[in-house]
Automatic annotation (TrEMBL):
This is Ethanolamine-phosphate cytidylyltransferase. One of its GO terms (biological process) is phosphatidylethanolamine biosynthetic process. Belongs to the cytidylyltransferase family. The lineage of its organism: Eukaryota, Viridiplantae, Streptophyta, Embryophyta, Tracheophyta. It comes from the Eukaryota. GO terms for molecular function: ethanolamine-phosphate cytidylyltransferase activity.
Amino acid sequence: MADSGASALPSSPSQNRARLISTCLAGGLIIGFMALIRLYLPAGGNDPLGLVARLRRRRKSSNRPVRVYMDGCFDMMHYGHCNALRQARALGDQLVVGIVSDDEIIANKGPPVTPLNERMIMVSGVKWVDEVILDAPYAITEDFMRKLFDEYKIDYIIHGDDPCVLPDGTDAYALAKKAGRYKQIKRTEGVSSTDVVGRMLLCVRERSKSDTHKNQNHSSLQRQFSHGHSQKFEDGGSGSGTRVSHFLPTSRRIVQFSNGKGPGPDARIIYIAGAFDLFHAGHVEILKLARELGDFLLVGIHTDQTVSASRGTHRPIMNLHERSLSVLACRYVDEVIIGAPWEVSKDMITTFNISLVVHGTISESSDFQKDEGNPYTVPISMGIFKVLESPLDIITTTIIRRIVANHDAYLKRNEKKAESERRYHSENQLAKIIEVRLHYVKATG
C-alpha cells in the first residue's frame, strides 16, 4: 500500500511518558478552567461531573464569608427597605447594616419619625440582616470606610440605584465608588418613606378641616409627600388613603420574602392576627414573644375592608399586600395568611393545626376583651387563647400622631431632600455633557 504521508518514527519509552504527562496536565487545566467558568453559571446549569458543586464546597470551607455593608436611616421602615436588605444580602454571605444616628439624620435631613432604638429593633428584626452597627455616619468618610474594611472585614458597600446626596449636593458614596468596593442594587418601585407620610396625612385630613390654617399646611404637605398622585383627595373626594399606593404585587415577590418552609408534623403552631399597618417596632416585639411560645408562627393579616370597618375609612395606610410583605420580612414569622378572617373559627384552627392563639395587650382596639362580638370566642372556649404583655407601648396611631405633630418640620425636610437631589442630577448632567464633548473633540482630532 502506498504511503500517503510521512511515516512516524517509533517513540522511545521516555518520550511516551513525557507525552502522557503533558496530555494529562493539559487536560487537567482545561477541566479546571471549565469548572471555574461554571461557578458563574446560573443555578441549575449543566454540571454532569459535579465539579461546580465540589469547587463551591471547597471554596466555602477554605475562604472566609463575603461580608457586605448597607447603611441607611431606615425611618418609617417599609417593605421597600426590606427588599433592599434582601438584595444586599444576596450579594454576599453576611449582611452588616449601619443605622444612621438621630443627630446625623437631623443634621442632614430633618427630624426622624422613629427614634434610633425603634429603628434598631426594626432592622434587627429583618430576616436577611446578620449584624447591626448603631450610630453609623450619614456620609461614608474615609476613616469610617477604613474601619469597615479593617475592623468589620467588609468586602463591598451596597446602596440602591437612587441617588443619596449630602446637603452640599455631593454623592454620599463617592469614596466607596472610588475605592472600587461599591455595588448597586435596584430600588423597589411603588413605595418610599415620603409617600407613606403622605398617606398618613390623608387619613387625618378630615380632623383638620375645622382649623383653616392647619388644613392648608396639611394639604401642602400632603401634595409634597404624595407627589400629586392623589388628585382625588386634593379635590375633596373620599376613599381609602391606601389608594395612593403604586405597589404592584406579584407571586415572585411574595416567594422572595417567604421562608418556603412549612411546620413539622409535631410542630406547636402559634397564631396571631392583626392589621400590622405601618409595621413598627411594637409589632416586631410582640411577634418575637409569640414565636418564643412555639415552633412555628402563623400570622393572619386582615383585609383592607376589615381594617376600614373597625378603624375608619382612611385606614389602613398600607394595603393588604404591602402589609403582608412587611410581616413576611420579619425573622420571627414563618408564614402569613393574606386576608385572614376577623373571627378565628373552629374550622380555621383545625385546618392550620393551631396550638395556641395569642394577642398583645397594646392594640388599636380591645375587641379581644369583649363579651359579645369577640373574634376570639372559639379559641377562648377551647382554652387555647393567651394574652401577651406587649413590650412596647406603640400602635399605628402613635406613628401617625408623630407625623401630624411635626408636619412643618417634615415639609422642610422633604423640600431640603428635593433640592439636594435636583442639584445632584444637575451637576451629573453637566458632567456628562462635558464628557461627551471631550470625547467628540478627541475623536475628531
